[in-house]
Amino acid sequence: MADAKKEQIKVILDTNFFFVPSQFNLDIFKELSELLNQRFEPILLSSTHKELQGLTKSSSPKEQKQAQLALTLAQKCISVNIEKASDETYDDVIVRIAEAWKATVATNDRELRKRLRKVGVSVIFLRQKHRLGLDGAV
To answer: Strand 123-127 and strand 131-135: pairing?
Structure first.
């Protein structure tokens, strides 16, 4: 029962990570649970939620459908209201919050992964299109 005493790992999910299930037929929550020994809290930042909502309106029909599924999956996350400055990108918000909270980020965005690793944030990503990988320590 030593695991029960371990702290939950906060995992901030990036917009593109919510597209993994529809693109690669992978259950991201099951995979995260296995990767992190069931000790994680999936976090949805309000800025990411807003980005997903925007994609349901402004993108191709395929992306609209993926964004709708992503919003359904996002309901399994803990929503956190975050202020996004007018000069910040969605990625800037993720980097700022992940660094401040010492949280792990789940993303497939290569540039965002590089930025996060530069500031010491662990990253979870899709590896070989069928499993999750972890870059950094949790």
So the answer is: antiparallel
Are 12 and 98 a contacting pair, CB within 8 Å? yes
Find tokens 């909270």 and name the residue: 101
Cα-Cα-Cα-Cα torsion 111, 92, 86, 61, nearest 10 degrees, comes to: 50
Contact of 78 with 42, CB cutoff 8 Å? yes
Please report whether residue 94 resides in a domain.
yes
CB hemisphere CA count around 17 (13 angstroms): 33
Distances in Å between the Cα of 84 and the Cα atoms of 14, 19, 51, 97 are: 15, 22, 12, 11
Q: Is 47 exposed, middle or buried (0-12, 13-18, 19+ CB in 10 A)?
A: buried
CB of 105 closer than 8 Å to CB of 116: yes
Q: Which residue(s) pair with 9 in the sheet?
A: 40
Token output for 53: 């909502």
Q: What is the pLDDT of residues 28-61, one digit of tens each?
A: 999 999 999 878 999 999 999 999 999 998 768 8
* CATH classification of the domain holding 94: 3.40.50.1010
pTM of the model: 0.91
| Domain containing residue 18 | 12-34+42-135
